[in-house]
Design brief:
The protein has 219 residues and is α/β, with parallel strands linked by helices. It has a single domain, classed as Alpha-Beta Barrel (TIM Barrel), CATH 3.20.20. The protein is built from 10 helices and 9 strands. A 6-stranded parallel beta sheet has the order 5-4-3-2-1-9, sandwiched between helices. Strands 6-7-8 form a 3-stranded parallel beta sheet. Helix 2 packs across helix 10. The chain is globular and about 45 Å long. InterPro entries: Aldlse_KDPG_KHG, Aldolase_TIM, KDPG/KHG_AS_2. Belongs to the KHG/KDPG aldolase family. It comes from Pontiella desulfatans. Homotrimer.
């Protein structure tokens, strides 16, 4: 196995140990480190900062510098410039709502795990053909929910693929998703809402993380 594939496999193995990935939208880069610290206080050492806002690049850089122990993910990576920014920042992994082969190959060429988004059998097969063993099922709720993924599990589960459902996943339904062997983790934006971040309500965020991890342990 090449050193590149070894590094990607190592990060994949680390993510497979973490059943919940917080999906975070940050409007003020100054909130990034306190937010990440609130997640860590709750027992969660992984974060996905979406590239939806102008503050995202600096937010990622701030977390990378202040909290190197955090598994730092960049989400909503949909442009070439965003992909380059992620690699320059040194993120641990990247994610996207869709599957762009060029983005997958760019991350792979830079020794960094990438998790593309899929919604159909054809997209799953394209992801597998690119060597992606972990795929983001998005938008999970609108794309047919648990029943849809259960049906997809029949042909693709034996191939070793794992899914991270995101979109419509919450504390009330997370166990339905995590009960499926094909699901390695769920992505959740409820763990730290934009309003809670704006209010700097770090204590509530820490408590929500604890509740999510406690429920995940029941799966």
């Amino acid at each position: 196995m090449s050193p590149v594939l070894q590094m990607e496999k190592k990060m994949l193995n680390e993510l497979l140990k973490r059943p919940v990935i917080p999906v975070i939208v940050i409007d003020d880069a100054n909130d990034a480190v306190p937010l990440a610290e609130a997640l860590l206080a709750g027992g969660m050492d992984v974060i996905e900062v979406t590239c939806r806002t102008a503050a995202a690049p600096q937010a990622l850089a701030n977390i990378k510098k202040a909290l190197p122990e955090m598994l730092l993910g960049a989400g909503t990576v949909v442009t070439e410039d965003q992909a380059k920014m992620c690699i320059d920042t040194g993120v641990s992994f990247g994610l996207a709502p869709g599957l762009n082969p060029d983005t997958v190959k760019f991350f792979q060429a830079n020794d960094t795990l990438f998790i593309p988004g899929v919604m159909t059998p054809s997209e799953i097969e394209q992801g597998l053909s690119l060597g992606c063993k972990m795929l983001k099922f998005f938008p999970a709720g609108a794309a047919g929910g648990v029943n849809m993924l259960k049906n997809l599990a029949a042909p693709y589960g034996p191939l070793g693929v794992k899914f991270c459902p995101t979109g419509g996943v919450n504390l009330d339904n997370m166990l339905e998703w995590l009960s499926m062997p094909i699901v390695s983790a769920i992505g959740g934006s409820w763990l730290a809402t934009k309003q809670q971040i704006a209010d700097k309500d770090w204590g509530t965020i820490t408590q929500q993380v604890k509740e999510a991890l406690a429920k995940a342990s029941e799966a």
